Amino acid sequence: MDADDRAVLDAWYAIGFLDAPPPRTTLLGTALAIHRGADGAIQVRAEGRDAPLPVAERHGCLWTSLGTPPDAPVAIPETGEPDRRLVCCGSVDVGASGLRVVENFLDLAHFPFVHTNILGAEPQTEVARYHTEWRRDVDEVWATDCAFHQPRAALSALTGLETRYIYRVASPFVTLLYKTCPNDPVRPDVIALFVQPTAPDRCRAHPVMFLIDETSPQADLIQFQQRIFLQDRIILENQRPRLLPLDPRAEIPTRADSLSVAYRRWLKEKRVRYGTTDSL
């Protein structure tokens, strides 16, 4: 791990769910031990370090950092709404750079081909023009005005929907989307992907949903999201290179990839190397 890769070292990372954090895990190639004391407080220690790591409990997850992180992990204001359900969807190991996993999460174009008859279907494959921006006041990348026809946008959706999306990249390995909720005409559902890079070309993904859905069984909501993510894992583990190229000449984008282009430019300006081909 390059000590100059501060955008990676100083970030918060989800390393498990609060209901059952793993006793051992790996972050950025460093072995971690997780212990809950008699008072219920959780302590995280890194191999080769005397002092415990910083710890936070947010959004159903246990968070830590190997560097000097901000005061708290990503803020998600919607989590304070009392009628939203927290759905932790299980952790999934992926044989690809965590940055590849985030970029895939941001990609509308793959919906009809990878998530057929769920998030998309032929012949409605066109990605309408949308707006991307780097919000420098908060140092985040956003995409707005995204729209896609989805046969089953959510477990609670009974018919196809013209689904509106807003994407938010809060840190290199943390991303969220806000999408049309079938149960509320005003407030969107919020789906977060917290990625734990375990090695440059491997990671563990922790999907978490904050839903307005009073009726769907919890197990069914988890299964619905896991089905989608496991479809993505097949594609991700077959991508080459497994690391994310930041050189704009390495992979040729299309108009539908404007969010991916903005994400890569942002990473490059932040001098992110971990999980990229720049680290080779």
UniProtKB/TrEMBL annotation:
<dbReference type="GO" id="GO:0016491">
    <property type="term" value="F:oxidoreductase activity"/>
</dbReference>
<dbReference type="Pfam" id="PF19112">
    <property type="entry name" value="VanA_C"/>
</dbReference>
<feature type="domain" description="Vanillate O-demethylase oxygenase-like C-terminal catalytic">
    <location>
        <begin position="97"/>
        <end position="270"/>
    </location>
</feature>
<dbReference type="InterPro" id="IPR044043">
    <property type="entry name" value="VanA_C_cat"/>
</dbReference>
<protein>
    <recommendedName>
        <fullName>Vanillate O-demethylase oxygenase-like C-terminal catalytic domain-containing protein</fullName>
    </recommendedName>
</protein>
<keyword id="KW-0560">Oxidoreductase</keyword>
<dbReference type="InterPro" id="IPR050584">
    <property type="entry name" value="Cholesterol_7-desaturase"/>
</dbReference>
